[in-house]
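Contributing new records

If you add data, match the layout below exactly. Sequence lines come first and carry their own label; structure lines follow with theirs. Keep one chain per record. Anything else will be rejected by the validation script.
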Amino acid sequence: MQKKPIFHNFAFILDVINFATALSWFCAYLALFLKLKREKNVVGLSLQTILMLVVAECNHVLITAVLSSHYHVELGLDFYLCDCSTALLSAVTFAYIYFNFYETYESNRDTFGLNVTNFIICWISRAGRSNHFIQKKSNKYYPTSQKIFWLTVYILNFFLGSIIFFLRKSSSPPIISFWESYMDSLLSLALLPQIFMFYNKKPRKVSSLLAHFVAFILLARVFMLFYWILYPLFKLSIVPGRRLHIFSESLNVTFLMHFMYYFIRSKLNGENDIFLPL
């Protein structure tokens, strides 16, 4: 008989962490809606990031539902209160912004995908080519990259998702396993366009509410990181790919640590806005 985990009788703590994750998501979008109400614009906000969060969260709900049906496992209340609510909140937020504030969207600064695309084109062209050829190629593909740059992260994520897929051990059907791997890695990259946008201007000043949006998203990822780390101490069941969940959540936290340092420092200094280094 398999030995029970040391904190088996306190498994409710994992549920508390799960609810704390959902609460952090709610606080993040609350900060965003307060920004919209006060400032009447989405200046400084990356719609690439918001869209990636919507895609990742909605697909997470679909994956959970499919796996539940496949393994004949009943979904608990936490699925509807946490997973479904955050996915719905993400989708509603994106739609609300798109239909009401899109004219204030700084598309000329939300260019993470565009810059990555141009970097890749130049890097590929540079091998054994002259600077004139590189410039010619960049100019040739620039109009195209402007039109499809928002797809860049999704395309690059295919490779990261594939690595996770081949490393994870899952009893799920391959297509579902890859789907889950792809969305896990996409969520890890979701905040990169927003962070890039913060640094893509001078002076690098971030409004308090927008900074709180990112901070609460990070807090949600920290809760999920703790959830997966602590899982074996509370639950007897084994979750396939748990270590890779830890890896993807760790990426989330790592990408945002630099920003969070200046966020915390600004708050400790009593500053309203967040000032990032030049």
